[in-house]
Amino acid sequence: MSVVAHPSPVVVSRARSRRLRLALLIVLLIATPVVSIAFGAASVPMDQVLGVLADHLGLRPAITWDAITDAIVWQNRMPRILAGIGVGAVLGVSGVALQAVVRNPLAEPYVLGVSAGASTGAATAIIVVGVSSTLGVAGMAFLGALTATFMVLGVGGRRHGSALTLVLAGLAVGFIFQALTNLIIFSSDSPETARSVMFWMLGSLAKVSWGQSIWILCVAIALMTMLWLCAPWLDALASGDRTSLSVGINPAAIRLVILIPVSAAVGIIVALAGGIGFVGLIIPHLMRSFTGYGHRLLVVASGLAGAVFLVWADTFSRTVFSPSELPIGVITGLLGAPFLLALVSRMNPAR
C-alpha cells in the first residue's frame, strides 16, 4: 500500500505567502504608472490622468481636458514611465544574475563597472564615431559592457577571489572606463554635446521617446523571460561549481550564456537612459527577504520591484527641484552607496 506524501502546513503557508507577496508587487506595478503621472513640474488631477489614458486606449471618458494636459500625460510622462519600468526591471534582474554567476552578494552592473563600460562605448559612438542611430549606440554600449565584464572577472577571479576583491576589481575597471568617458567628452568640439552626454551619464529618462520606451520594455521582457527559464542554472551556479557539475551543468559555458545577454541588455539601457547605479544591488537583496532565495521567483520579484523603484525614483527626480530635473543616478547613488557600505560591514573578513 503506497503512501502519498502531502506538503506540511508550514510549507503550504510559506508558498501561499510568497504568492500573495508577488501579487502585491504586481498590483504596485499596475498602480504606480497611473499615480506617478500626476506628479511633476505641472501637477495633473488624477481624474484627468485616468481620462487621458482611457481616451488613448480607445475608451470615451465623460470628463474633458485641454491639449496641454494631454501632451503632458501621453507624450511627456507616459513614455518615460514605461522606460523606467523597463530600465528598473533590467537592472533588478541583472543584479540577480550577476550575483549568482560570480557567487558574490555585492555584484551588480554599476559596482562591477559594467555600466561604466557601456557608458564609454556609447560616448565613443556618439562623440568619436558620430553614430546617431539608437541601434549603433546600443551596439557600442554592449561591446563596452561586455569588455568591462570580462575585465572584472579576469582580475577579480571567479573561484579564488573574495567578495571584496571582486568589488575592488569592479571599482578599478569602473574608474578606468569613467576616465576614458571623461576624456572622450573633453575632446568633443561641441559643448552642447558634451553637456548632454554628461547629464546622460548620471541617468535620465527625460528624452526617451515612445519608440525607445517600447524597445526598452521588450528588452526587459526578453531578459526576464530568459533568466526565468534559466532559474535552475542560476540556483546551481549560486551553490557552487561542484553542485553545477553534479547536476550535469557546465559552469563556464552557462556563465557565458547568461553574461552575454545581461551585458547586452545593460548596454542597451545605458545607451538610452545613461548610467543608473545600485538598483541591481538594492532590489535583489530586499527581494530575497521578501520572496525567498529560489531564483525562479526571485527573478520575477526583482524585475517587478526594480520597475516600481525606478519609476518612483524618476518621479522624485522630476518633482523635487521642479522645474529643474535631478539626474536619477544621483538619487539611486544616495540610496545605494550606504546600502553597499552596510553589506560590506556585515561580511565576514575571513571570506
From TrEMBL:
SUPFAM superfamilies: ABC transporter involved in vitamin B12 uptake, BtuC (SSF81345)
Keywords assigned: Cell membrane, Membrane, Transmembrane, Transmembrane helix, Transport
InterPro entries: ABC_BtuC-like (IPR037294), ABC_transptr_permease_BtuC (IPR000522)
A Gene Ontology BP annotation from the UniProt entry: siderophore-iron import into cell
Location relative to the cell: Cell membrane
GO molecular function annotations of the record: transmembrane transporter activity
Membrane-crossing residue ranges in chain numbering: 22-42, 81-102, 109-131, 137-156, 163-187, 215-234, 254-283, 295-313, 325-344
Membrane topology listed for this record: Multi-pass membrane protein
Gene3D superfamilies, per the entry: ABC transporter involved in vitamin B12 uptake, BtuC (1.10.3470.10)
GO cellular component: plasma membrane
Primary localization: membrane
CDD domains, alphabetized: TM_ABC_iron-siderophores_like
Family statement: Belongs to the binding-protein-dependent transport system permease family. FecCD subfamily.
Protein name: Putative ABC transporter permease protein
Organism of provenance: Acidipropionibacterium virtanenii
